[in-house]
Amino acid sequence: MTDHGISGGASVRSPARAVLAVAGVWLAAAFTLSLSGSLQMPAGAPPLRVLAAAAAPILVFMLWYRGSAAFRAWVLGLDLRLVVMFQAWRVIGGVFLVLLAFGLLPGLFAWPAGLGDVAVGVTAPLVALALLRRPDVATGRGFLAWNLFGLLDFVVAVATGTLASGVSPGLVQGVTADAMSAWPLAMIPGFLVPLFAILHLVAILQARARAA
Q1: Nearest to 191 by CA among 22, 14, 4
Q2: For the whole model, what pTM was predicted?
Q3: pLDDT at residue 21 above 70?
Q4: Hey, where are the domains in the chain?
Q5: CA distance 116 to 2
Q6: Which residues contact 9 (CB under 8 A, 6 or more apart)?
Q7: How many CB atoms lie within 10 A of CB 180?
Q8: What is the dihedral of CA 122, 124, 129, 130, to 10 degrees?
Q9: How far apart are CA 100 and CA 108, in angstroms?
Q10: What is the pLDDT of residues 149-184, one digit of tens each?
């Protein structure tokens, strides 16, 4: 397998078109749900709709990968350096710290979510550069650890966001994390979080395939 992806076969081109179509529908759905307020829950209720919106695309990806050989080949043929480099956009998670400073998000959620995202985003170009210089970096423990950290950051963010949503009275004073279920912040758990999580999974799957 090359670092530049698989090309030229109908079995590869077809999944690519399907992926673009699914991604377009997913983005439109996330935008509509976020803008309409459909992801918001009553005060004090767990953010089940946001959690479902974040988990559903990841589940679809895993089932598609497991059930389609053509999709598997397409995923494993993606340029790993670009997959990793895309994580640089995670620096936008620093907006959580800005919103914390303005009293719009609680520290229980904003600190771990913001710092974790920034850490992954800042280091993504370094990891991509390491892959450019030495492709075998992908099979090393450091690469796996970096991707697992990126996924763990989402787990922590979901956990703290749920706790900070008001489900545990007294845990947060004043402002809650309910803003994450309203437009425009709802686009983050509704689209960006599962997108970045899927890219981490792609990187891990490619690493496993190379090491096999």
Answers
A1: 22
A2: 0.91
A3: yes
A4: 10-211
A5: 31
A6: none
A7: 26
A8: 110
A9: 10
A10: 999 999 999 999 999 987 776 676 778 889 999 999
